[in-house]
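Hello again, I could really use a second opinion on something today. I owe you a coffee for this, so here goes:
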Amino acid sequence: MPVQTPSPTHVAEGAIQVHHLITTDHEFDAFRAASLEYSDDWQCFTGFPVISNWSLEEDAAPLFEEGLRALALKAAVHALTGDEHAAEIPIAVPVDEMTHAMLAQAQLLHRIAERHGIQIIHQTDQEHTDYRADSYTAECYRAAWGTPPPRYWLDHEEVERRRDQLAHLYTSIGMGRSGREHSIRFETLAA
């Protein structure tokens, strides 16, 4: 039986509290620094690059905030429903990609969450990256923080359009399946 989603107002209240607890934790600065340091490993070809004029240096900090808000929204839905599946609300692709960098800081995030009784929800095979500006997620976000920044909270259809454009560009330089394979022979390239 499907779980009824809580009202956006209740989710917003919970998300604001989760966000506050995480950002005021004594290990938050270390968590933030570690998440942003993860940048050397950000080699996704279809997540962050769907952002127009993507720049790691300029976009990392705002994306970290959006990722934190997304995790707070999911944690709030879980706290209100007790259901992990219901908590996997749709998140925009670039924001979801940032949550992966944050989740890679497993020990820090686990300690922060455990100290405050927060359940961080994310399971790749359960996640939804089909976010839309008129969705339940957007309603919850607006109730908590106002309008989601459209630079990062891209509608699913726009993400797919941009991914298609990127795939054509990647193919033109020998990268297939959007960076999942390539036909580049490094031994034949000049040093």
